[in-house]
Amino acid sequence: MALDRRRSPGRSRRGRADAKEERSLFPVWTLIVVLGCAAVWIAGAKIYQEQMAAYESYAAIRQTVSSDTFFPGVTIDGTELGGMTLGEAQALITDRQEQTSQAFSLVVASGERRWRITSQEVPVTFDAQTVLARAYAVGRTGTLEERYAQIQDAAQNGVHFSTGFTYDRAAIDSLVDIIGDSLDVEMQDAAIDAFDMNSKTFSFTDAQTGYRVDRAQLAADILAALDEGAYDRVIVPRGETIEPSVVRAQLEGLFGRISSFSTKTSKDPDRNTNIALSASALNGRVVLPGETLSFNECTGQRTGAKGYREAGAIAGGVLVDDTGGGVCQTSSTLFNAVVRADLTIVKRSAHSWPSSYVNKGEDATVNWPSLDFVFKNDGQFPVFVVAWFENQTVTVEIYGQLLENGMTIDLESTVTKTIKPSDEILYTLDPSLPVGTRQYGREKRTGYEVDTYKVYKDSAGKEIERTKLWTTTYRASQKEILYNDGSASASGE
């Protein structure tokens, strides 16, 4: 039997109604919501995962940078310090410093002499603390990210530091001075050692070659060896020799008797005694360069206690007996010898009238303590005075450096004016005389003006230069008679 597949109209309508009701139980927006929630959940899960990852990375970075040890890749003098504490690194560097100080031992040698230089003599100053601080600062400056970047860079590329040290330059200079003082030899020119008054000869010291250490170079050599770490180096000081400018052979031909002058005395034994005593007071005197010699200081006051006698002397233009009379002949003889030795005259006075034993203008009177004869040695070497009296002759010689090229000096005096005295007799009241007595005062004497020249001559005796020393004036005097008639006034006749 065939089936009738047609549906009845009522059933068909009921089916469509059920379907519509079913569709109303699961609307489309519900699916959208579900899908949206799922997306939100997935997104939230992803954010959470990212945040957790960021937190874990931050925590790891913070843990890394918060380490109290040196970071990997940081080295000092080639030694890896990563993982070491600051104290451990300091101990390591200190140990190396001690090794460096102990290895520091230089030797300065000159001939058989040795000087050892160690850190005990020259302290060493290290910069390790500064370098350690710089190395420890790697990864510890800037923001967290900057610090971490430094740590990462150090681990990948390394950060390298080197320590250094310096030496106490003042200590080195002090050692150099000690060494230099030990090796330096003072240059000495040949010099006069002594003068024998008896033989009238000089003796001389030998010249000595000097040596001077180049102290700046020695200090530089020591520093160079230390900087190079050449601690076993032997340093030989360098220097220069200093040759003397004057040797003994030169002096032996340069010294001797420069000048000599003699004057003839009278037969008066008292006067000659005074001349002999004053000459003896001069004999053996040494005048060093720059020093002066005073006739009065050599003899002192001429007194009877010293053996001086009364003899004729000029006082106030009058010839009188005076203790020490005649010593002016010794001073005048000394003056002539001194001028001829080219020494400098400091003080000189002429007599009231010309002396018989020297030329006019060539005398030098003395009187204690007002009048003195003084000369100075302006040369570079000492001069020696030799003086004596013998056979009515007083002689003074000057020894020292000879004049150049055999030159000699002489004196020449020229009378430029003659002053005639008055022929009238001058009577002068002298209350010191006994009443009613008369006696001669000054003698009638002609006066003079005299120019004196210092004449330089070559070895052949030819004049090469002439210098005027001075003009001497000897005043004229008329004849004088002293008297005392008891009156209060005096008149001339």
- Chain-averaged pLDDT: 85
What structural class do the secondary elements suggest? alpha+beta
Number of strands: 27
The span between the termini is 225 Å
Please describe the biggest sheet, giving its number of strands, its sense, and whether it closes into a barrel.
4 strands, antiparallel
Total of helices: 11
Strand content: 25-35%
Overall 3D form: rod-shaped
**Helix fraction by DSSP (H/I, runs of at least 4):** 25-40%
**Strand arrangement in the largest pleated sheet:** 13-21-20-14
Radius of gyration: 59 Å
Low-confidence stretches: 1-8, 488-493
Question: What does the model show?
Answer:
This protein is of the alpha+beta class and 493 residues long. It has 11 helices and 27 strands. The chain has helices at 9-25, 28-65, 86-103, 128-136, 144-157, 169-183, 215-228, 248-252, 269-282, 295-299, 327-340; strands at 74-76, 79-80, 105-110, 113-118, 124-126, 159-161, 165-167, 192-196, 201-204, 210-213, 234-235, 239-242, 255-264, 285-287, 292-294, 310-315, 318-323, 344-347, 374-376, 383-390, 393-401, 408-419, 426-429, 437-440, 447-457, 463-474, 480-484. The strands form 10 sheets. A 4-stranded antiparallel beta sheet has the order 13-21-20-14. Strands 2-1-6 form a 3-stranded mixed beta sheet. A hairpin with a 5-residue loop joins β25 and β26. α2 packs across α5 (144-157), α6 packs across α7 (215-228) and α9 (269-282) packs across α11 (327-340).
